[in-house]
Specification:
Strand content: 25-35%
Number of helices: 3
Radius of gyration: 20 Å
Length: 199
């Protein structure tokens, strides 16, 4: 390892820090970013097959800045996470709003309403509108926290980060806004790919 660090022009302490963060990414389930089928067009490795450790599901764009990418500029020695690295970890391990394809339910573990935290579940109907099927107060204990704060104010439900799950896998990351209409149902104002999930 010392020789590899020296070959890349960084000191041993920086090399250890970088390697620890990179390998911990694998512990969390992150694959090498350069393994994507299309990424080798812009990423030249001497022996691509040697590094071919496929991951699970790609729910962000190809990330040239990922700490999991061997083709990252200043790969060795830069232990910082990219925006996509951070959002990937939040998506898999954060308690965030989740829309499940099989049930058409939107589960929100913590939404702030009039200064108080609630948990809520909405059901997507065939009319394309969401119906609130449950809402209950929660408390501020750590296990009831969310890594992303959802708010409901002036009939607007703001979802800064929303994951779309199918077959128990995170497929996409969105952000969105819903408006509650006079019929009590929630209409989509906008739901789009989260900006940190795309280049």
């Amino acid at each position: 390892m010392k020789q590899r660090c020296a070959d890349n022009g960084i000191n041993f302490e920086q090399c250890i820090q970088f390697t620890a963060v990179h390998e911990f990414g694998h512990v969390l389930g992150l694959s090498h970013e350069h393994n994507r089928d299309f990424s080798f067009n812009s990423c030249s490795l001497d022996d691509p097959a040697r590094y071919n450790v496929k991951g699970n599901t790609s729910f962000t764009d190809y990330d040239p800045d990922s700490i999991m990418n061997y083709c990252r500029q200043n790969y060795y020695g830069d232990k910082s996470l990219s925006l996509m690295d951070k959002i990937s970890v939040k998506a898999y391990y954060g308690r965030i709003p989740t829309f499940t394809d099989e049930t058409s339910k939107l589960d929100i573990p913590r939404v702030m309403f009039q200064g108080n935290p609630y948990k809520a579940t909405l059901q997507l109907g065939s009319d394309g509108k969401f119906t609130l099927i449950s809402m209950a107060p929660t408390n501020n204990l750590p296990e009831n926290q969310s890594s992303i704060e959802t708010t409901f104010s002036n009939s607007i439900l703001t979802l800064p980060l929303l994951r779309y799950m199918k077959n128990r896998k995170v497929m996409k990351l969105w952000k969105g806004t819903l408006r509650q209409g006079s019929d009590g149902k929630f209409y989509r104002i906008n739901i789009d790919v989260h900006p940190d999930a795309k280049v």
